[in-house]
Design a protein that fits this description.
Layout: E1 2-5, H1 15-19, E2 24-26, E3 33-35, H2 45-54, E4 60-63
Antiparallel strand pairs: 1-4, 2-3
The structure holds iron/sulfur cluster.
Iron/sulfur cluster binds near residues 33, 56, 59 and 60.
Keywords: 3Fe-4S, Electron transport, Iron, Iron-sulfur, Metal-binding, Transport
Cofactor: [3Fe-4S] cluster
Pfam families: Fer4_13
């Protein structure tokens, strides 16, 4: 699984951090999300998929390898 996060369209809502705190975090200065883990293990899949679904900016894309 590979995650793409488009920081140019992220609006800093923080939903992804709530859904998958092991995979996403937010910059302290402006709240824009960044990846802690670009290729998370399969056990994180449901949390990552939830983050993708709940992102209001559609900034997260999850790719199967
Ligand atoms: S859920 Fe989407 S818009 Fe919100 S912080 Fe995460 S990537 Fe950014």
């Amino acid at each position: 699984m590979r995650i793409e996060l488009d920081q140019d369209i992220c609006v800093g809502s923080g939903n992804c951090v709530i859904s998958a705190p092991d995979v996403f975090d937010q910059r302290e200065d402006d709240g824009i999300a960044f990846l802690l883990e670009e290729n998370p293990s399969a056990e994180r899949e449901s949390a990552v998929k939830e983050a993708e679904a709940l992102c209001p900016a559609l900034a997260i894309r999850v790719h199967k390898k």
